[in-house]
Write a structure and sequence with these properties.
By secondary structure, this protein is of the alpha+beta class. The protein has nine helices and 19 strands.
Amino acid sequence: MKSSVWKYFKIKNFFDIEAGKYHYKDEYSEGSTPYCSASASNNGVARWIDLPPDFDGNKIITGKVGCTAFYEPDAFCATSDCNVLTPKFDMDEKIALFIVTVINKDQNYRWNYGRQCRVGNMKKMQIKLPATEDDQPDWNYMRECINSLHSKKIRTQNHPLHKKFDISSWKEYKLKDIAEIRNGRGITKEEIQENPGSFPAVQSGEDNNGVMGYISKKYCKEMKYVFSEKTCLTVARTGTSGFVAVQKDGCVVGDSAKIIKLKDSVPQNIEVYIFIATLLNENRFKYAYGRKVIEKKYLNTVIKLPINENNEPDWNKIIDYIGKLPYGDLI
């Protein structure tokens, strides 16, 4: 993109800006209206409530803390921690996504450390956008830019599940009740380069599921490295300690990672591995500040699982739940 033909524009010239409306918890229960907050995740949707929407769709929302922006196509409610931007022009989703990206790239760092971007601050804000020769925002350029991006069409037939699990009857289990852990051994990048293959080699790290390269499976067997040829989990021992990833086609692990394999008594479905990985990642906070994952302690990690009429883990319920999530039908 040619940034030289971009110019600064005041947001208030193209949007009406107002604060969201706070609703107390005793005002609502679970429903189908998105209730947005100052969050950078889940498109800002904190929960789904049964109140009528306060705002129509096709708007941009920014959080007052951090100024994280997102586009809301449907009618919604928003907390008072949000600024709601209603376009004064004919905005479509493509233009909105372009503007949201610019705000997030250009403004987020300005509102760190607890600074709040209130309505008054938003009205003073300027953002840099592509401009036409008559010094107006080039809406067509923005639309064409988003259209030019390469992305696959959404193929899932599943719809979001707005109803939460009732975990009151779930039972606590220790990880050692359902899984086993194997410690990895040192694998270097040089080994991967000298023995290339298609087998994932995992160390600590969150990027790319912890995979640092692809190595020859035959070489791993010769070196008697720690690996699994079937679906498993990996957990980072150091660095990104406690980060758990699903390795659908198996992998070999280095000395900064461990393999977690579900016991034979547990269904080996990918859905079960995804569910367990999610629960384990919720415990990741325990390994902050340089704490390492130690096998004996990690096996004592307590997680809650749904149970069936026999007071045993309800694996079928877990498989069914994961399969009904968006994209669960494509696993």
